[in-house]
Design goal:
Layout: E1 2-7, H1 10-22, E2 26-31, H2 39-56, E3 59-62, H3 68-75, H4 82-100, E4 105-108, H5 118-132, E5 135-136, H6 145-154, H7 166-179
Parallel strand pairs: 1-2, 1-4, 2-3, 4-5
Helix pairs in contact: 1-6, 4-5
Length: 184
């Protein structure tokens, strides 16, 4: 099948790419992550994707848009539901390109992460697939979580420590601060 894979980052694509390649799919990557904060993080993730995919010979489509304001406006007062907006925004763009590019199906590397809401991603992807007339390809790539980490480290890929949005960055540091011993 000709499959379009939305990439959140290079390390999360390593294992799904391996699996999809072994299944003999014609794979194209799609980088669109307008929620990543700060901008330097966005640039670093995109550059890592560009460098690795060029080296690996993976065909890519880039939608280089940094839309932090749109993301914040859409989730203000709904911060606990921010992932739904984020999933929908990125999968919508992927479904549209898949339909216009006559792909057989589309998927996302979000399905590799054990930290993402798989049922929600599958539901949104399936609904958008039906709306745009292109199948959402669900595969639970979490089984390769450890292998993907090992492979991405071996490749020397930049490995970020949070999902990407300003809130996940806050959670990363906020939780660490709460666990730190208090000064006496």
């Amino acid at each position: 099948m000709k499959i379009l894979v939305h990439l959140c980052c290079a390390p999360c694509f390593v294992y799904p790419y391996k699996v999809l390649s072994q299944e003999q799919h014609e794979i194209f990557g799609f980088f669109f992550n307008p929620n990543i904060h700060p901008y330097q993080e966005y640039q670093r993730r995109m550059e890592t994707v560009q460098n690795w995919t060029e080296e690996a010979g993976i065909r890519m489509i880039y939608r280089d848009e940094y839309q932090l304001e749109d993301f914040l406006r859409s989730i203000i007062y709904r911060e606990n539901e921010r992932c739904l907006f984020c999933y929908h925004t990125r999968l919508l763009a992927t479904a549209q390109i898949a339909a216009n590019g006559k792909f057989d199906c589309f998927t996302t590397t979000l399905l590799y992460s054990k930290f993402q809401k798989h049922e929600t991603i599958a539901k949104i992807g399936t609904e958008l697939g039906q709306q745009y007339g292109v199948q959402f390809y669900y595969q639970d790539f979490r089984e390769g979580w450890k292998e993907g980490i090992t492979l991405s480290k071996k490749l020397g890929l930049y490995r970020q420590q949070y999902c990407g949005c300003i809130y996940s960055e806050k959670d990363r540091y906020w939780q660490a601060d709460k666990k730190a011993p208090t000064p006496e």
